[in-house]
Amino acid sequence: MSLPNPSFNLTLRMEDKIVEGGLRCWDELIPDALGLIFSNLSLQEILTVIPRVCKSWGRAVSGPYCWQEIDIEEWSRRSNSEQLDRMLQMLITRSCGSLRKLCVSGLSNDISFAFIADNAGSLQTLRLPRSEIGDPVVEQMAAKLSNITFLDVSYCSKIGASALEAVGKHCKSLVELRRIMHPLEVADKVCQDDEAHAIATTMPKLKHLETAYLLLTTSGVLEILTNCRELEFLDVRCCWGVKLDENFFNERYPNLKVLGPHIVDCYERNYWDYCSDYSDSSGYLAWELMDDGIGDFDGDSSDGIWDDDQGLEELELRFYEGFDDPVAAIDWPPSP
After folding, report:
1. Residues 6+ away with beta carbon under 8 Å from 334
2. Contacts of 121 (CB under 8 A, 6+ apart)
3. Residue 102's CB: how many other CB atoms inside 10 A?
4. pTM
């Protein structure tokens, strides 16, 4: 039995959504409207199915309209460093300087971080958990991230106080910082109050701060609270050196919600262990489908993927390969 045509099925789904809104010329929508609609689809559909539907859709996914917000965090956990670097370069280049949000996990080198920073003129949200970037490149590039309001550098074991200080000095609009660590990553450290000091002295506008599992002390936390007067939420789970007097905090910081320290987050610990053992290979989305020219609809693909039904059947199999595995199903968010 032949597999269903994913391009045809997706076209019907998209047409139904647009007709419901009172529009029927769905293939003539302006590119930014198409980009807004396509943003509700999965990454593999945008990159491998949408360009197949028609020329206007192909142009839309090749331009900046779909890539003002790039969230490949789940995908990047299943990909090796070479695939990740190529994907970032392709998608960020397509954004043409309009990138506002970027979520990616496991950035493997400073070069990729520098590339992100060089194209971060409009970037406001940056999530880089489990990345291998170090202090020097963050200090060098922090000035180019001046517009970010949210930063996630959780589980980034190679950065420390000097990188956080550079971010605080240059990112004056930063209101949310996520700096969660894993106990094994801080096992060789005695104290990380230097990071607390960097946060306290350079990030006065913080409203949301997560520092779970950092080796902080009570004095380090108090320094943050003294200087970050707009803080509304503080996560100090498993910061065992922090001793909090509930009555004192309720009286002095009535608008502050504190999580921890005596809360053991098994999910964070187990999830890290799971990710560290995960294969670097990506079984459901082969990289040969990800060439930057895939969005160019010329009716004749040079690599032969779209030449016949067999190629399309192979593509469908790649979409769903391995999805019987419940872990894989959790890692990749379902298509709308």
Report:
1. 42
2. 97, 144, 147
3. 25
4. 0.72
